[in-house]
Amino acid sequence: MNIFYNIKLGIGDMFHNLGRTFITMIGIILGVMSVIVVFALVEGGKQQSIKFMEERGGALKLSIERQWSFDIDKREQFYNNRLSLAETKSLQRYFPEIKNFSPVVRKSVRIKRGGKYFHSRLRGVLPAYEEVEDFYVDKGRFITDFDVEEANKVVVLGTDAKERLFGDATALGEFVIINGNSFKIMGIMEKKELYMGAMDHNMLGWMNRRVLIPLSTMVKKLYYNEEVESIYFTVQSREEVKPIQEKVNQFLLALRDGKKIFNVEANSDRIREIGSTSNKMQFIVLIVGGISLIVGGIVVANISLAAIKERLREIGVRMAVGARRSDILVQFLIQNILISILGGIIGMILGLSILDLLSKFLKSPTAASVQMVGIALALSVGIGFLSGIFPAINASRSDPVEILRYE
After folding, report:
1. How far is residue 305's CA from residue 223's CA, in Å, rounded to a whole number?
2. By C-alpha distance, which of 106, 89, 100 is closest to 267?
3. Which of 293, 361, 279, 392 is nearest to 10 (CA)?
């Protein structure tokens, strides 16, 4: 008897005993559903986190920040925990391979226009800030090299600042007061938006509050302080991220006599950490989902054993008319595998169909992937094989003489 005949027998028996088949599949269906759903939640969180980093400049962006944990009890060391403009310029000269170099100076200010006020973190930046932050002007223009050279009193507003101060009115060409100085509005930035699943909160909304002026204007005409808080820059390719990160770290150590006051942080490191954390979560999900599928497999095995006892006469007759032990084994093994595959497919369909509802209910993003579906189906097939092998072997070892005499 060939394998196709055994498959036909298995399918026929499944449809002949639909109730028993459905009960047998329940554990597999629920197990595959749980794997699909939790994998989708983990993958959705991973994709949104990576998208967040890409909206902040992408994998080629690096930043230099102060390390706040550096000997925080020694107040006398605070004098050198920032870089001067001269030091940032030497850094740029020393590393010509750096792209989109933009030091940043921040100050909390209250911006005034008529009787309206807007509180924000004013940023003094260079023209490369647009590229390095992947944050571009939507209307008007951005800060230019000429603005920096002349320390012009020009400003670019985020959308929140513009709406608070001007509402629906045109802001370009108008003036606002910053720290007692009149600044001309040259541009309005694009609106940054990123929502996590069904959440109403804009994860990038804080970027829309930014107010930007030339770096030279900040340090020469507003605050007369040339200390830089942060430096943002990009490199040409992913391959250059690590080498440049190490070289800049060494340069900063040399500037401060070997003391690690600054950190050179790379977006690619954070993206890698997100991927690593996601992989660990998926592995845990795989273990938990595997356990639930094993429980479903035990149910399949028990029902199969009970079904074999009910079909002893059929087994005996088949063996008496020439069926080999291998035919009996394949018949019942294929039947269990088919039940598991069918249960896996139903569980997969149900799991995928509830992802949108689950995302809205939990207010968390979900994302399906081919890998996730493949793993779930492979688990169901594997469980079907393992749960069916013992009952099938037990059936194939039956003695037809004893069976028929008993019957």
Report:
1. 83
2. 100
3. 392
- Spacing of C-alpha 6 from chain mean position: 45
Q: Is 51 helix (H, G, I), strand (E, B) or coil?
A: helix
Residue type, 7: I
How far apart are the two ends of the chain, measured CA to CA in Å? 25
DSSP letter for each residue of 261-300: -EEEEEHHHHHHHHHHHHHHHHHHHHHHHHHHHHHHHHHH
Which residue is associated with the tokens 């008007």?
140
Question: Which residues, in sequence order, are CB contacts of 272 under 8 Å at separation 6+?
Answer: none
Q: Residue 396 and residue 316: Cα distance in Å, rounded?
A: 10
Residue range 221-248, pLDDT digits in tens? 888 777 888 889 988 888 888 888 899 8
C-alpha closest to that of 40 among 285, 251, 319, 264: 285
Question: pLDDT tens digits for 285-334?
Answer: 777 777 777 777 777 777 777 666 666 666 666 666 666 766 667 777 77
Q: Is 231 exposed, middle or buried (CB count within 10 Å of its CB: 0-12, 13-18, 19+)?
A: buried
Closest CA to 56 of 136, 159, 158, 133: 133
Asked whether the beta carbons of 144 and 243 are under 8 A apart, the reply is no
